[in-house]
Amino acid sequence: MASTANALSPSLSAANSSISKPKTLHDFYLRFKNPNAISLRSKRVGLPVLRLSGITSPRVSASSAQLMHQSVGEASSRAPTIVEVDLGNRSYPIYIGSGLLDQPELLQRHVHGKRVLVVTNNTVGPLYLDKVVDALTRGNPNVSVESVILPDGEKYKNMETLMKVFDKAIELRLDRRCTFVALGGGVIGDMCGFAAAAFLRGVNFIQIPTTVMAQVDSSVGGKTGINHTLGKNLIGAFYQPQCVLIDTDTLNTLPDRELASGLAEVIKYGLIRDAKFFEWQEKNMPKLMARDPSAMAYAIKRSCENKAEVVSLDEKEGGLRATLNLGHTFGHAIETGFGYGQWLHGEAVAAGTVMAVDMSYRLGWIDDSIVKRIHNILQQAKLPTTPPETMTVEMFKSVMAVDKKVADGLLRLILLKGPLGNCVFSGDYDGKALDDTLHAFCKS
Ligand SMILES: NC(=O)c1ccc[n+]([C@@H]2O[C@H](COP(=O)([O-])OP(=O)(O)OC[C@H]3O[C@@H](n4cnc5c(N)ncnc54)[C@H](O)[C@@H]3O)[C@@H](O)[C@H]2O)c1
Ligand SMILES: [Zn+2]
Predict the structure, then answer these.
(1) Domain boundaries, the chain
(2) What is the C-alpha separation between 336 and 329, in angstroms, rounded?
(3) Helices (DSSP H) in 318-381: which residue ranges?
(4) Fewest C-beta atoms under 10 Å: which of 78, 273, 332, 430?
(5) 17 within ligand 1 shell (Cβ under 6 A)
(6) Which CATH class is domain 76-254?
(7) Annotated active-site residue in 265, 305, 315, 347
(8) pTM score, two decimals?
(9) What tens digit of pLDDT does each residue of 167-186 get?
(10) Could you check whether 76-254 and 256-444 share the same CATH topology?
């Protein structure tokens, strides 16, 4: 079994060891422009490899020792694909598959202590809470499960709502040996994770993401937090879960608009680091929009692999991890300026991606065929390609000024540069290009 550390190509070993101190931004770009050279640590526990859409990855195997008693046919249809997030003693598995909430052993092996607090909301709770409680307790009478149901929506991703989790945990007199379980989309995952990081200075935590957005992005990598009225996700912590359990069946109840929103992040991985995946998406977008199970499972798996690789190399966002924010600086300005919850996160990211791509083109860093392909794929995914009409240049500028990627007063952006699949995280650009982009997309 290869570990990420010893499987790195020489160039990436160098990049990894000096992530926090690139000599110049150009140097930084050169070192990170081919991150696909790395090999992800994989787990192979001995059962049949799951093949998805005819595409196999030698690095990911579908297996679970506890499933050995099942027949091969049953096991291969139910065994999870496992993507490992390699973070030394904080490494954890991402289980991906259909019907995983019916496999209690997957969750139970990651529960610490005897008391569990499930954090969910008033939309997801009625759909999946009973199933999750059953998965946590079946054959395991010593464990008691309580829940806290939060109001649904990005506008509740704030300190007041977070307090409800602490209130419940304290009322229940939970101690350090408890486990918090996030059941829901990215809002619940981010809030529950932050609550787990802060409660008693840190308790065990499990992610059960139920949106495409959460399954391909937010549940992986340990970024947790809440919004402030002046900016998104400004208060939070890096805090890794014990495992991420992705039961793809939960997507059956997800509204179409939410599905499309999550695809914005899938497209992002292709653009910043995985041209082959982008090409696959160009061919398979109709299948993803139609929720074809094997296409969706492949998109989730490949997205998680990309995210896991980036997070393994740069957990605390010294540099490389920031590239996952393509389109997000513009997108966060839309979410904040337009009001949380008006546009979905992925919708704002889609429009923001078009703006970042426009700026990259103005700088002469990419050719126009890339611009066209990005427009096409976003349109196929029914995602917006322009910001809301009410957004002004001033609104963009004032929100972007408090972005987390501002360093020493300089706004650093993720921009595409070179062939498809390459990007830079840089403050070293001609400010006129940014101004021109903002004026091109805003009426005033
Ligand atoms: N931590 C990270 O690294 C990271 C990465 C990306 C996004 N995020 C955050 O994630 C949030 C967006 O996440 P999201 O798009 O999942 O939004 P969300 O959590 O608001 O979920 C979207 C909607 O779908 C509902 N829902 C969830 N699962 C469902 C299901 N299976 N069936 C029916 N309805 C369901 C929710 O109740 C909600 O109404 C943002 O706050 C964003 O900042 C965080
Ligand atoms: Zn995002």
Answers:
(1) 1-45, 76-254, 256-444
(2) 11
(3) 328-338, 345-362, 368-380
(4) 430
(5) no
(6) alpha beta
(7) 265
(8) 0.84
(9) 999 999 999 999 999 999 99
(10) no
